[in-house]
Specification:
The chain is of the alpha+beta class. The chain has three helices and six strands, in the order E-H-H-H-E-E-E-E-E. Helix content is 34%, strand content 37%. The relative contact order is 0.15.
């Protein structure tokens, strides 16, 4: 690919839906189900997750924020990413009413590193350099 490398978003086959409206409806339903979990059950779920990821540098988020972040992620799509001299140039589509997280993973010798950026709210098309 030379100096400019281009990556296009790919969705695993099992996650593709023939009808995008049905896919979005299912995703929204999953997001709404998070809100339906009782606080006591939520604590049990979180305690199990924390035990499972405590060695992975977890990023904790309040329960109320999870549904907001899920909605923003479901309402937007990363459609193209291009490695340029200044960083990673990302093309996004959709609508977001607040900052949305974008995690960029890179190679570092035998391991990898994680860098998190936040995409500003947008409507329609957006291009962000991260």
């Amino acid at each position: 690919m030379g100096k400019r490398q281009v990556a296009t978003q790919r969705v695993p086959h099992q996650m593709q839906a023939r009808d995008p409206a049905l896919r979005d409806q299912a995703a929204r339903h999953a997001s709404e189900r998070i809100n339906a979990i009782s606080p006591a059950d939520w604590e049990t779920v979180i305690e199990g997750i924390v035990r499972g990821v405590e060695d992975w540098e977890p990023q904790y988020t309040a329960r109320e924020q999870i549904s907001i972040i899920c909605r923003r992620l479901l309402d937007t799509r990363l459609v193209r990413a291009e490695l340029v001299e200044e960083g990673l140039l990302c093309d996004l589509v959709g609508a977001s009413d607040g900052p949305s997280p974008l995690t960029v993973w890179g190679n570092d010798g035998e391991g990898c590193y994680r860098r998190e950026a936040y995409i500003d709210p947008f409507q329609g098309l957006a291009q962000e350099l991260v």
